[in-house]
Amino acid sequence: MIQRSPEIEAIVRRWTTLIRSHKVADLPHYLSQSDALVYIGSADGELWRGQLVRDGIADHLAEVPDFIEEDIEIEAYEHGETGWATYQSHYTFTGTGSRGTHRVTFVFVLERGGWKMVQHHISQADSNRDKLGIEHTAFQRLIAAAQAGSHRFGTGGLATIMFTDIVDSSAQAEAMGDTEWVRLLDAHFRRVETIVTDHGGTLVKSLGDGTMSSFTSATGAARAASAIRAGTQDSRLALRIGLHTGEVVENRGDFFGTVVNKAARIASAAGPGEILVSDALRQMVSSDAGCRFSAPVSLRLKGFEGEHAVYRLEGDA
Questions:
Q1: Would residue 217 be called left, alpha or beta, if left means φ above 0 and alpha means ψ between -120 and 50 degrees?
Q2: What is the pLDDT of residues 132-183, one digit of tens each?
Q3: Shortest CA distance to 87 belongs to which of 10, 27, 31?
Q4: Under CATH, which architecture does the 3-125 domain have?
Q5: Are 64 and 77 in contact (CB under 8 A)?
Q6: Predicted confidence (pLDDT) per residue in 201-254, tens digit
Q7: Where is the Guanylate cyclase domain (predicted)?
Q8: Considering the domain 155-314 in this protein, what is its CATH number?
Q9: Which residues have a Cβ under 8 Å from the Cβ of 73 and sit 6 or more positions away?
């Protein structure tokens, strides 16, 4: 699962701070020991690999004159033992007054429990007209369309995300045979979509033997989860369901962000026939909704720090 990485963001911030403050002697400690290590600069011939990078990076970046940076933007992500980051800023060289945009990408790997840089790429913001002899216009057209109101980029907002998952689906599929299993799964998905829609939600997508849905109402989502569980109690399917509420990013009908990841982790922690909800959803469900919740239980969720309070949604809402 891809997730934001505060740890890698902090490493990138320290790396760039060391360059800006001319404390470059520490830079080799951030580099991978792999022969795959590569440094790509913006000038002709600035592509070096392996030990050459480790031996020369400090002296190379020590040659950078004094500069200041503004409007620094860092985005960092990780997935398993791989991480990456983008860095952008506006720079001014204090000696000459030269200004421009600094753009960098980083790739990291885990080595002995720590993130080490395996690729570092600096991009010079030359115009496409100077470099290619043409002007790219696709993104400019997209921006113009958005400004005219005819295109929507990913937008944020408060939503409740619900994941459902069939317990022991592989064993059931093998026992039933492909044809009967696909027929049962199709009927299940159609039933889930009907219930989600009836409760003001949207079935975003099916995920193998599970589903992901979104709701503008936390109460509607809780009631939908209860109805889905009730509809499968007499069937051959045992479901686990997880819900979480928070700020999500929507783009082209799909949803992204920490809220989505946490809802999926909560669903994974549920047992057969169990609905687990986050503390955020519990607080937002209307007191007159007819929902009954257990006492909070603290769980550790993979990919999230610390312990998180979850509640079982009991009975029918």
A1: beta
A2: 566 666 666 766 776 676 665 666 678 899 999 998 888 888 888 888 888 8
A3: 10
A4: Roll (3.10)
A5: no
A6: 999 888 778 899 999 999 999 999 999 999 886 677 889 999 999 888 776 667
A7: 160-267
A8: 3.30.70.1230
A9: 86, 87, 88, 89
